[in-house]
Structure formats: structure tokens, C-alpha cells
Amino acid sequence: AQTPCCTLAAEAGSVEDLELFDVLKIGYKGIKCVESGGPEPGVGCAGRGVITSINFLEENGAYDDVDYVSYDVLGDVVCGGFAMPIRENKAQEIYIVMSGEM
């Protein structure tokens, strides 16, 4: 399992105290993987964790040599915070994938 970026930032003191190699894992065929994480359920805004992670990755060059970036985020929360990456122009296209599984 991968330790979430937000957990590592909390342990280090802040996201500024992290290095890219602390949160980035290289997977199958060189795919770069980062687990954003967020607050405990019912506490804080998970969207804030997502945008904090995205900003950290941008500032530390994680996107410099990639062709595609894919985010897998929860869509079943009442908080509108997941719209933050959209509002801050972090996406060119957005696809919503749903299933009937519960």
C-alpha cells in the first residue's frame, strides 16, 4: 500500500517539507503513482487534499515528462470540494465513470 501524500505532509509538518520521491511511486511500465489522501470522513474537505496534492506535484515537476494524467477521485461525497481542481483549471477534459456497484 502507498502512504497518502496528505498523511506524509501531516507527519512532516507541511507539504513544503516533502520531496517528490517521498510521494511518487513507479508502477508497471513506468507509470507514476501518487495517492493523494485526505481528511478523515466527516472532517475537513477532501477536495482540499486533492488540490494540495496536485499543486505539490506541479511545483515539483511531476508532470514534466508525462503525456497523460489520470485522477481517480471519490464522487459520493456531499462536499463540493472535488470541483476545486476543475475551478482552478487543472483539467482539460473530464470523464465521469460510474457503476451500479455498491
From TrEMBL:
The keyword tRNA-binding does not apply. It comes from the Bacteria. Gene3D superfamilies: P-loop containing nucleotide triphosphate hydrolases (3.40.50.300). The keyword Metal-binding applies. Keywords: 4Fe-4S, ATP-binding, Iron, Iron-sulfur, Metal-binding, Nucleotide-binding, Oxidoreductase. GO terms for molecular function: 4 iron, 4 sulfur cluster binding; ATP binding; metal ion binding; oxidoreductase activity. Pfam families: Fer4_NifH. Its cofactor is [4Fe-4S] cluster. This is Dinitrogenase reductase.
